[in-house]
């Protein structure tokens, strides 16, 4: 069983907030990226009005599609994918956006989540967003993205975002963006996510090799008594299985 490391100290109240946009849009221009960027900018504006600096980083999944596929097959992320994980692990909040294809979230988005460490986003505030060519897919965000991020133990804000072509000219979309960004900022300023992650860290089940900042491990956490580890060390496996 892996050891539970001590939580890292929380950032000071005046530390800049790090927002990370994860976009699975592949078109140019991408409506998914546009929705995520618009939401991130509103969150930055609200934080600035409250006297908090913020920066926005972006993880575009389209250019990482081959890296993600290789990681799924091999079990080992390449350098570019590891850099994306590290950026995500350092995020104070995330805005996750995906296009909807055939009544489901993007395959590259789901595959990216599949290769993430399970504890990477514990208690991280997240805005969930999706775009589609028709409003028939409006429930995909809450039916598919919300359970996915619940499994990751993130903190999705109550308001989810969805935009079909007709929504871009509708003021209601701006109102939903305002509401979601406000919810995100309130979670950030209250420090709820960091308090949950730090206070309850020892109670979570972690994976060895996690990229999360509170999940550092050393060689003492590795079980060297298994057959595989004995074979790797030049010994023999379970003698009872040998002829």
What does this structure look like?
- There is one protein chain.
- By secondary structure, the protein is α/β, with parallel strands linked by helices.
- The model is unreliable at 1-12, 208-213 and 215-222 (pLDDT under 50).
- A hairpin with a 2-residue loop joins strand 3 and strand 4 (104-105).
- It starts with 16 loop residues before the first strand and ends in an 11-residue tail after the last helix.
- 37% of the residues are buried.
- The protein has helices at 31-49, 65-74, 79-89, 107-114, 140-151, 171-190, 192-199, 227-232; strands at 17-23, 54-60, 93-101, 104-105, 125-131, 155-156, 161-163.
- 39% of the residues lie in helices and 15% in strands.
Q: Which structural class do the helices and strands define? A: alpha/beta
Mean pLDDT: 84
Helical residues, percent: 25-40%
Number of strands: 7
Low-confidence stretches are 1-12, 208-213, 215-222
* CATH superfamily label: Flavodoxin domain
What characteristic shape results from the CA principal axes?
globular
Beta-strand percentage range: 15-25%
Highest-level CATH class: Alpha Beta
Q: Report the order of strands and helices.
A: EHEHHEEHEHEEHHH
Give the tally of structural domains: 1
Could you give a short account of the major beta sheet? 7 strands, mixed
CATH topological fold name: Rossmann fold
Give me the number of helical elements. 8
Radius of gyration: 20 Å
Please name the CATH architecture.
Answer: 3-Layer(aba) Sandwich
The CA-CA distance between the termini, in Å, is 31 Å
């Amino acid at each position: 069983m892996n050891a539970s490391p001590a939580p890292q100290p929380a950032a000071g109240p005046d530390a800049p907030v790090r927002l990370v946009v994860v976009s699975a849009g592949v078109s140019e221009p991408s409506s998914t990226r546009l929705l995520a960027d618009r939401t991130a900018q509103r969150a930055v504006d609200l934080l600035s009005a409250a006297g908090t600096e913020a920066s926005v980083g972006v993880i575009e999944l389209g250019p990482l599609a081959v890296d993600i596929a290789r990681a799924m097959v091999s079990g080992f992320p390449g350098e570019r994918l590891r850099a994306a994980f590290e950026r995500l692990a350092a995020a104070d909040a995330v805005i996750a956006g995906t296009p909807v294809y055939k009544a489901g979230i993007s395959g590259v988005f789901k595959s990216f989540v599949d290769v993430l460490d399970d504890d990477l986003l514990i208690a991280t505030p997240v805005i969930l967003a999706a775009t589609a060519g028709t409003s028939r897919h409006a429930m995909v965000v809450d039916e598919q993205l919300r359970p996915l991020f619940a499994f990751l133990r993130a903190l999705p804000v109550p308001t989810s975002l969805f935009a079909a072509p007709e929504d871009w000219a509708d003021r209601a979309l701006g109102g939903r963006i305002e509401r979601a960004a406000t919810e995100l900022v309130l979670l950030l300023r209250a420090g709820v996510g960091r308090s949950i992650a730090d206070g309850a860290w020892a109670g979570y089940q972690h994976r060895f090799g996690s990229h999360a900042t509170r999940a550092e491990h050393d060689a003492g956490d590795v079980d060297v008594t298994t057959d595989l580890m004995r074979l790797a060390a030049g010994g023999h496996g379970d003698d009872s299985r040998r002829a």
